């Protein structure tokens, strides 16, 4: 049986984990494995490969089930556990592994993120503690085109979060890596680029400032910060060269020809362990192991065969790596290199070596810029135009100067040669200072791309294939048709019929978007927190990904969970108008009696009164949006007292098809008179799972359901979209309907906040 065919079979068997809506139950997995074994024994190629496909699929499904098990079984009560600290992120946040439960070993160990508590004594990675844990299943906010934190957590094998109520140290010793890391951190604190040196050498990116991260993202050099295959392969190459050099001075019978390969791999594994064995580093070690096995086989393998075997080895070792965007980027980048150099070889020049090296580097960066576009747009929703110029300088500087100096400095740190170590760190720091001085001179080249242009990013691939196969001459009609279809966003008009309201999943806050004809009116802007807000993290990326431009913002009231993203939105679109009941400079009034038209929709404010302005929840601006047939009532955080005052005057104007449930479903709001007077069909709630107030209230949900409303919440459904047209209305739930994936499911206690 061919190894590469088996590798392809494994990859195709694990890929369904990306799209399965639910995981098969354990008995079904066992049946699939048995059927696979039986088919694999039959001496017929198609039947045998089908059997192996079933076996590999069962292996992937079993790995996924083992990750789901802790979320379903360890979140229903206190757990007495033995844990090992993996990393210390702050004084009250730790990444750990559960290695024991009730005195019994847990295999494999379960990843958990602990937060909110301070340990009773100094803590570090490697310590072992006995704890009483209150655990929760990981749960992420889910918006169309947004960062999928739940998928990321499962790919990282961190399915649980929690707090401890009791902690007793069992082994206070720090790991060798932790002690080395602490010593290295102290040494590098004296250098201006010390955090970046730590990031490049040890993969510790927490200390790197947000400004540096943004600069590297905008210039397309962020990939240099990760402990990736480049760093580990470079370290392995140094050892390979040393051992290879020794072979010239040692008799052949004393040192096998395999020694440089094995030594390089062993050092790569050691360096990956030293940097914390982060997923990219682990995947690199697995790939190097696969390459080593292929080289030791004595056969000649093509680049595509090696690529398939390496990916298969990664997925065999860790099937959930298929959920990782970093694996997608790495695998796609290697495929790009193979394709680019096979289909568009570098030009052969009779010029000095420096010119040839510059041309080859330019050729490499041009290929990466053009052919990596599809995955960059999917993952990052944009690309950097300045990356071509930035990487022409950054890649050789970091690869051949900075990283070798950092590796040398890390080695000298173990030796009693402080003077030489300081000199090496000074040179490494100087090289980074030179790099960042250059990067800051480049213009902001980040180009945001919306999803309409996703298919256009495949044109460089198609153009290369068409050019090499002379497709323009052979199939001119096909080529022109593809080009016209790919550029359709330039000439295709926006739909004018109907409108939609989107309740974004922003956690414990509120942000809604009323969309029509490619334009948007926002109602509230979500929460803010130290160092960020919902607009930066969620709302602005969502608007740009969907090619929507906000023309105005309605602010219900001045609480931070509703107004948190206003400054960031105003900075992104300074021409937006703002309506609110706050009376602030630059804000148009949003009080009873205000009425305006927008793209065929009528907006009317029903609360608060202009004559008796209020602050806080009962001062929320209540707005009704209608098209003549369907209507939407936006209520902010109005409470029962404000509801009663509003109903006592013009209750007959509040009837609506859909209501945004006031105050996140709190029992202090949604009085029965309001629920009955609105008389709607749909009730939408914006809240966060695990919020401290246990919102939405079970009583409120029962009240709406009893009056005939469809009750939908963002903790349960993620982003909620209701589309209105002359034919009626339609609800789209992202978690349940649009993206029903097993890794998006509601794990843990069924009635937990929502």
UniProtKB/TrEMBL annotation:
Stretches assigned to the Metallo-beta-lactamase domain: 508-689
TM segment ranges: 51-71, 180-202, 222-243, 255-274, 280-297, 309-341, 361-380, 392-417
Location of the protein in the cell: Cell membrane
Keywords: Cell membrane, Membrane, Transmembrane, Transmembrane helix
CDD domains hit by this protein: ComA-like_MBL-fold
Topology in membrane: Multi-pass membrane protein
Broad class of where this protein is predominantly found: membrane
The UniProt record lists the keyword Hydrolase: no
Domain of life assignment: Bacteria
Name of the molecule in the record: ComEC family protein
